[in-house]
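Propose amino acids for all 57 sites.
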């Protein structure tokens, strides 16, 4: 160790950092969107079945 502080890290512009962050998490985001869509469809079907059951049974 030479006792000297590290030089400041070069920062990329915000749009570049954002695009890199998004591209690194694309698969995770797609999985969350698929899971959310599945839950939404399931909730909608369950709600329609409950509505139908209350009306006709």
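Proposal:
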């Amino acid at each position: 160790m030479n006792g000297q502080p590290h030089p400041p890290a070069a920062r990329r512009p915000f749009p570049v950092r954002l695009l890199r962050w998004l591209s690194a998490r694309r698969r995770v985001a797609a999985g969350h969107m698929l899971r959310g869509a599945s839950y939404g469809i399931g909730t909608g079907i369950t709600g329609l079945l409950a509505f139908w059951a209350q009306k006709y049974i």
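The mean pLDDT is 90. The helical segments are 14-24, 26-56.
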